[in-house]
Amino acid sequence: MFRLSALSTRQAVQRLAVQARHQSTISTAAASSMTAKNVSMAATGVATVGAIAYMSMETVDANMAADGLHPPVYPWDHKKNLATFDHAAIRRGYQVYKEVCAACHSLDRIAWRNLIGVSHTEAEVKAMAEEFEYTDGPNDVGDMFQRPGKPSDYMPKPYANEEQARAGNAGAYPPDLSLMIKARHGGADYVFSLLTGYQDPPAGVEIREGLNFNPYFPGGAIGMARVLYDGLVEYEDGTPATTSQMAKDVTIFLSWAAEPEMDERKKMGMKALTMLALLTGLSVYLKRHKWAGLKTRKILYNPPAPKKH
Length: 309
Ligand code: HEC
Description:
Its EC number is 7.1.1.8. Belongs to the cytochrome c family. The chain has 309 residues and is mainly alpha-helical. Among the domains are: 2-60; 67-110 and 154-262, Orthogonal Bundle (Cytochrome Bc1 Complex, Chain D, domain 2), CATH 1.10.760. Helix content is 47%, strand content 4%. It is built from 9 helices and 4 strands; from the N terminus they run H-H-H-H-E-E-H-H-H-E-E-H-H. It has helices at 2-23, 28-58, 87-99, 122-130, 162-168, 180-183, 187-196, 243-258, 262-295; strands spanning 133-136, 145-148, 212-213, 221-222. A two-stranded antiparallel ribbon has the order 1-2. A two-stranded antiparallel ribbon has the order 3-4. It is flat, with a radius of gyration of 34 Å. 18% of the residues are buried. Residues 1-7 and 20-31 have low confidence and may be disordered. Heme C is lined by residues 96, 100-101, 103-105, 169, 172-175, 180, 184, 191, 194-195, 217, 222-224, 227-228, 250.
């Protein structure tokens, strides 16, 4: 709405400029009366546009915190057209998820096997899955039983149900993170900013007991406390585990979780574009080849020779 009125203000100003330019070409006598008329018209125009702009400014949300602070745009490597995910970062990000986030957040759509060939080897994934007990069954006598996890099992949940999750988090529900990057405006930029954006509330802002101030969260008060602190995890590849490094890695891990097919999709896209480019060249050549005979032909009319009598 505001943009619309800003546009019309710009148009009005342009129109005035055009009128002023026309003025210089009109003879003086006519010009003086024209000028008076034009000035009054212009003044009315400006007043109207101003009034509309003022009115529409009134409609701008007075409470900007309701939308949260807009996250800056970060240069994620995997967002480039020809780039894949940073798989070392996915591996580190999984470690952050497992050691930190998994205490509260589930990752329902990712099975252990999805990590094979992406961030871990098959043997590693089997060993990781076996650390967890899964309920299976029923067995021959109809009983459910516990067994160690297999690569085909999905990631274990921290809570049995939503009620338990809320009870453990002062009423706030830690959402499933599988599609979080796609579910929030700003995606990876938002999650990274959220994790690194905790700070003291500015003067005059009251935060209720149990909530935490984070300007990127719509409303500014989030149920999740700051979870990442420098040196919280120890990366096996020796990367220093700063807060921003862990936030970046876990965000890349979650970006992969939301879009595990991305690398494959970009590769298929490259193949398709290459094939289509070759086929376009071929079809242009064939079209010209087929039409060459028709396009270059010449139609001649030879009138019959006059009859001799
Ligand atoms: C102690 C439990 C706990 C831990 C650990 C935790 N979270 Fe949360 N998280 C929550 C709760 C509770 C909410 C819901 C907050 C709310 O709605 O106010 C939440 C919300 C979120 C949201 C959603 C915000 C939104 O826009 O709705 C994201 C994203 C998130 N957490 C990411 C993470 C990541 C990544 C980690 C690991 C680095 C993590 N969380 C660790 C409890 C936790």
